[in-house]
Amino acid sequence: MHAEIKVADASRRASFARFASMREAGLIVIILALCIAMSLASPHFLTWGNFRAMLMSFSIEGIVVVGMTILLIVGGIDLSVGSVVCFSMVVSGALFLAGLDPWTASLIGIAVSALIGAVMGFFVTVVGLNHFITSLAAMVIVRGLCLVITKGTPLSLFTLPPEFKAIGQGNLQGVPYVIIIFVVVVAIFDFLLRRATAFRKVFYTGSNEKAAQFSGIKTNQVKFWVTVLCATLSGFAGVIYMARFGAATPTFGAGMELNVIAAAVIGGASLKGGSGTIFGAILGMALLSVVTSSLILLDISVYWQDMIKGCILLAAVSADHFLHRKKS
User: Fold this and answer.
1) How many domains in the chain?
2) Domain enclosing residue 222, as ranges
3) What is the 3-state secondary structure (H, E, C) of 263-290?
4) What is the pTM for the complete model shown?
5) Which of 86, 213, 244, 288 is the most exposed, fewest CB within 10 Å of its CB?
6) What is the pLDDT of residues 159-213, one digit of tens each?
C-alpha cells in the first residue's frame, strides 16, 4: 500500500516537473489566474456567451498567427498580414460582384494572397532584402491596391449564398464553424511543426542559417515557402472574414499585425528565429483576448486597450531578449 502511494506521488511529481519545464507553463498559469480574478470581478465573465465571443474574436485571427509563428521561427517577420487579409476579402468580393461564384472567387483571392507572399519571398531570397523592409513595403502597396479596387468604398456582399455565409456564421451542434476551422488548422500545423521533417528545416534555418546550409538545407527555399505560407493563411483568413461579415472593407485589418506578432512573441516565438510553437502562439492569442474581454467587462475605455497590448508585447520581447542573452 505504501509502495503504491510512493509510486503515485512520484508520478505526480514527474507530471508537475514536465509541466513546469514547458515554456508555455507560465502563460497557462497567467491565463488561469486572470480568468479566476475576472470571475470574481464580473459575473458575466464565466459564461458561455462571453467565452464564445472570445473564441470567435481570435479564431480567424489565430489562423494568421499560425503563419506568423512559422515565419518568426525561420527568422522572418511579416508586417503585411493585415493588408493581405483585407486584399483577399476585396479581391474575392469584387470578383463575386462581377458575376463569379463565391467559391471560385475565394480560391482566386487566396491564390493572389499566395502570389503576394511569393513576391515578398523573391525580394528576400533573391534580391537580398530583409523581411521587415520587404513586408513594410508590401503592407503599403497592398493596402493601396485595396483602396484602388474598392475606390475607398466598402463592398456590400449581402447577396452571398447562405451555404457560403455558413462558413463564417453557421455552427455545428452549437459550435461555430469558424472555431472548428481554427482548431483544425492549428492541429494540422502544430503536428507538422513537431513531427514533419520538412518543417524541422524551419527550425534549423532559423537557429543557424549557415550551419543549415552546410548540412545541405536549401535555406532560401525554406524562407521563400514559409513566406508564401504566411501570406496564404492570411488570404484564407480573409475569405472567412468575408463570409462572416458579408462585406469587404478596404481599411479592414489595419493594426492586425500588432496583435498577431504580439501573440506569437508572447507565446514564445523568438524575433531572432529558431524557437516557437503553435500552441504557445495560440496561448498568447488567448491571453490578449482575455485581457481585451476583461477591459470591456470592467468598463475601461477602449482607448487604453492598444496601450495595454503594447505594454504586454514590450514585456514579452524584453523577456525573450534576456532569455537569449542568458543562453548566450
Assistant:
1) 1
2) 61-253
3) HHHHCCCCCCCCCCCHHHHHHHHHHHHH
4) 0.88
5) 213
6) 899 999 999 888 888 888 999 999 999 999 999 988 888 889 999 999 888 998 8
